UniProtKB/TrEMBL annotation, chain A:
Keywords: Cytoplasm, Nucleus, tRNA processing
Function as written in the Swiss-Prot or TrEMBL entry: Component of the elongator complex which is required for multiple tRNA modifications, including mcm5U (5-methoxycarbonylmethyl uridine), mcm5s2U (5-methoxycarbonylmethyl-2-thiouridine), and ncm5U (5-carbamoylmethyl uridine). The elongator complex catalyzes the formation of carboxymethyluridine in the wobble base at position 34 in tRNAs.
Listed PANTHER family: ELONGATOR COMPLEX PROTEIN 4, PAX6 NEIGHBOR PROTEIN PAXNEB
Listed GO CC annotations: cytoplasm; elongator holoenzyme complex; transcription elongation factor complex
Gene field: Elp4
Name listed for the protein in its UniProt record: Elongator complex protein 4
Species whose genome carries this gene: Tyrannus savana (Fork-tailed flycatcher)
Subcellular location: Cytoplasm; Nucleus
TrEMBL record, chain B:
Organism name: Tyrannus savana (Fork-tailed flycatcher)
Gene name linked to the record: Elp6
Pathway membership, UniProt: tRNA modification; 5-methoxycarbonylmethyl-2-thiouridine-tRNA biosynthesis
GO terms for biological process, alphabetical: tRNA wobble uridine modification
Signal peptide boundaries: none
PANTHER family documented for this protein: ELONGATOR COMPLEX PROTEIN 6 (PTHR16184:SF6)
Protein's name in the database: Elongator complex protein 6
Record's GO cellular component terms: elongator holoenzyme complex
Domain of life: Eukaryota
Xref: InterPro entries: ELP6, P-loop_NTPase
Similarity comment: Belongs to the ELP6 family.
């Protein structure tokens, strides 16, 4: 997923990033979180708590089984089928098959977090190791991240390299703020950056890793800072699902009466077309989001 | 025959045309070289099955030469063995500072001029898609050169 962070504060995109990770914990998946901005351990502490009451929360076992039985030969780059679906109905009951619901005002209990295997990549702690792979003129930070990812995928048996392993699990990967100067990339700094290709090369190798393993990945990118349109088009082409969030904070839309109940817009730029001839484009194209005290909704 | 077709989609998804042409030419009995950069083999294979064509069988009988870009890229980036001197990776340009697509063109030419090619009707080259080459650092000039060389190679064979 290439996920554009909205205008200034990256508030809402980091919320959706956390939802993705939280869903992974509730489903019992392994997590891999990479960031150059904040330590992944801190990100984990901020995850929303799941609502595990009778109607909306199925047993964790059921959910995990349902996901594993799908054909993950071609695992999607992102898995986007979860709690933000209710566009028309608000009652959770009818959507129990599609994931879980969360209470944004509460934090995920530590016992749940500890129940899964968690791999973290915090750039500033990784600077000592030498990447053994061919970096292909890619930015150093990206190369290290790929190296780390490839190691986890192969050691964890997510790519089927360990036939002894009976219990197959999914690896959920979250990468925050890719393309920002914190990763050593300059595509956000000018419209004629020196290193135009590092991000796209990274995404291509990442795509290859995801395709050959049982994993799904969410990437957030401060796209509003990338002035080079060609780069954004290539990034979109290399992703399966592309969603942009535009918040109303500080924009003229804030006072527009049409948007008074909402905090921003959701732009779906691309949907996945894996293993099928064409994708199913929904009729509803105008989506807006709002963050209430407990719930983040897209309508 | 002797045709160069460019598929271009703007704000929409034209990938169904790739699947169409792939199954169309395979069914017509042509020898096909498919440089598949964007998706994995199993994606194309599953869709081809829905269109009534079996890509694995086509590969086995030598009718289809399939370059799975994503896999080749991983082999190149994470592979530890040195490639044999006569067999550079078709995606060689990734690891070198020179961004020309010579190795890729050599791959295409070798695939379509293999000894058994006489058994099939006309050679067909499919590339999905060119923008991936640009994303991987090939210069626009290199991509144009690649297209040009491919056109000359394929059209002169007919």
């Amino acid at each position: 997923l290439v996920f554009t962070e909205e205008d200034k504060y990256a508030l809402y995109s980091s919320l959706l990033f956390k939802y993705f990770l939280a869903e992974g914990i509730v489903c019992g998946h392994d997590l891999f979180v990479a960031s150059a901005k904040e330590h992944p351990d801190n990100i984990l502490k901020e995850l929303p708590a799941p609502l595990l009451d009778d109607t909306s929360g199925k047993e964790l076992g059921d959910e995990a089984a349902a996901l594993k039985s799908e054909d993950f030969q071609d695992s999607m780059k992102i898995a986007w089928r979860y709690q933000n679906l209710p566009k028309m109905e608000t009652s959770p009951a009818s959507y129990t098959k599609f994931g879980h619901y969360y209470d944004v005002s509460k934090k995920m209990p530590p016992e749940l977090i500890q129940s899964i295997k968690f791999h973290s990549f915090y750039l500033h702690e990784e600077l000592s190791s030498q990447p053994k792979m061919k970096t292909c003129n890619m930015n150093d930070a990206y190369a290290r991240l790929l190296q780390s990812l490839q190691r986890i995928i192969s050691q964890g048996g997510f790519d089927g390299s360990d036939p002894q392993r009976k219990q197959k699990n999914v690896l959920r990967i979250g990468i925050q703020g890719l393309g920002s100067p914190l990763w050593g990339d300059d595509i956000c700094c000018s419209d004629a950056p020196e290193d135009v290709h590092s991000l796209t090369k990274f995404l291509y190798v990442l795509r290859g890793l995801l395709r050959k393993s049982l994993s799904a990945c969410i990437v957030t990118v401060p796209a509003h800072l990338i002035q080079n349109k060609a780069i954004m088009e290539r990034v979109t082409n290399l992703s399966d699902l592309v969603v942009g969030l535009e918040s109303f904070i500080g924009s003229e839309r804030e006072t527009n009466p049409l948007y008074k109940d909402y905090h921003g817009l959701v732009h779906v730029h691309q949907i996945p077309r894996l293993n099928s001839l064409i994708c199913d484009v929904s009729d509803t194209k105008d989506l807006a989001f709002r963050l209430k005290r407990k719930l983040f909704t897209i309508e | 025959q002797g045709k160069f077709t460019l598929l271009r989609d703007t704000r929409t998804d034209g990938s169904f045309l790739v699947h169409h042409f792939l199954s169309f030419y395979l069914r017509a009995g042509c020898k096909v070289c498919f440089v598949a950069l964007l998706q994995s083999f199993s994606h194309y294979s599953i869709v081809a099955q829905k269109l009534g064509v079996n890509l694995t069988a086509a590969k086995e009988r030598g009718q289809l030469v399939f370059l799975e870009g994503l896999k080749s890229c991983l082999d190149l980036v994470f592979g530890e063995e040195e490639e044999q001197p006569g067999q550079p990776s078709p995606l060689q340009f990734l690891s070198e500072s020179s961004c020309d697509l010579r190795a890729l063109f050599d791959f295409v030419r070798a695939s379509l001029s293999a000894p058994d090619s006489g058994a099939w009707k006309g050679p067909v080259l499919l590339v999905d898609d060119l923008s991936v080459l640009l994303s991987l650092g090939a210069t626009p000039v290199a991509v144009l050169d690649f297209i040009h060389y491919c056109r000359v190679c394929l059209c002169s064979q007919l």
